[in-house]
Amino acid sequence: MAQDATSYIQHHLTFAKSDLFGGFHLDSFWISLALGMLFVGVFAYVARKATPGVPGRLQNFVELIVEMVDNQIKDAFHGKSKVIGPLALTIFCWVFLMNAMDLLPVDLLPTFAQWYGHTFYGADPHHVYLRVVPTADVNLTFAMSLSVLLMIIGFSISAKGLFGWIKELFTAPFHAEGLLMSIILAPINFAFQLVEMAAKPISLALRLFGNMYAGELIFILIALLPWWINWVLGTPWAIFHILVITLQAFVFMMLTIVYLSLAVEDH
């Protein structure tokens, strides 16, 4: 039984990989892409069908999300940018949708993938893998956080100019009077700037990945229990996990806004 449980867990934690780039995770890519298209499609549909009169339920829901994101931007972002609003909205909705895949029954999509692979390609079901929570893939969370890092650098250069950004790398956080002290402190400032620059994407990526991986693993462990215990434990955990997936999407969005706000401000 222990071996069966071990094999079950290992199977559910194995990515569907391609032979490109050392094992490209196909499931993380395609599921995140489909969810991104779903987000864009729904919001585009609501924007086209929006009415100035009495809005429908879907329009009310979308307007509630947009207003929430807009309020957070007004409170946390102190610069001016036409990009920050769509960016923050996209991050919150997209990360939330990817996190929400954890609420699906553990065996639902992997079983369908096994049936599809066996029926149409003759693949051995035991060798057909599918992980349905993209944010439980550290590669995807790091890709997102590195994109945020590039935007931080871009926002900083846009606000301060290339020379101003390079100057800040060597003159902050420790300021000095006189050329000699500035030269002495320049390597120290640069080292601190590199640490700060590296800490931001690492904290973004690992926080989201750690929470979602832990949630995914708990759902898998609950699925191993008898069906009646599964329902008794799985239902309250799923309800609690709704708060977790929403909070993690909100935190990722808020930290992105704060980091970009810091990027356009002078130390």
From TrEMBL:
<dbReference type="InterPro" id="IPR035908">
    <property type="entry name" value="F0_ATP_A_sf"/>
</dbReference>
<comment type="function">
    <text>Key component of the proton channel; it plays a direct role in the translocation of protons across the membrane.</text>
</comment>
<keyword id="KW-1133">Transmembrane helix</keyword>
<keyword id="KW-0406">Ion transport</keyword>
<keyword id="KW-0138">CF(0)</keyword>
<dbReference type="InterPro" id="IPR023011">
    <property type="entry name" value="ATP_synth_F0_asu_AS"/>
</dbReference>
<feature type="transmembrane region" description="Helical">
    <location>
        <begin position="29"/>
        <end position="47"/>
    </location>
</feature>
<dbReference type="InterPro" id="IPR000568">
    <property type="entry name" value="ATP_synth_F0_asu"/>
</dbReference>
<dbReference type="Pfam" id="PF00119">
    <property type="entry name" value="ATP-synt_A"/>
</dbReference>
<comment type="similarity">
    <text>Belongs to the ATPase A chain family.</text>
</comment>
<keyword id="KW-1003">Cell membrane</keyword>
<dbReference type="InterPro" id="IPR045082">
    <property type="entry name" value="ATP_syn_F0_a_bact/chloroplast"/>
</dbReference>
<feature type="transmembrane region" description="Helical">
    <location>
        <begin position="83"/>
        <end position="101"/>
    </location>
</feature>
<feature type="transmembrane region" description="Helical">
    <location>
        <begin position="212"/>
        <end position="233"/>
    </location>
</feature>
<feature type="transmembrane region" description="Helical">
    <location>
        <begin position="138"/>
        <end position="157"/>
    </location>
</feature>
<feature type="transmembrane region" description="Helical">
    <location>
        <begin position="169"/>
        <end position="192"/>
    </location>
</feature>
<keyword id="KW-0813">Transport</keyword>
<keyword id="KW-0812">Transmembrane</keyword>
<keyword id="KW-0472">Membrane</keyword>
<keyword id="KW-0375">Hydrogen ion transport</keyword>
<protein>
    <recommendedName>
        <fullName>ATP synthase subunit a</fullName>
    </recommendedName>
</protein>
<feature type="transmembrane region" description="Helical">
    <location>
        <begin position="240"/>
        <end position="262"/>
    </location>
</feature>
<keyword id="KW-0066">ATP synthesis</keyword>
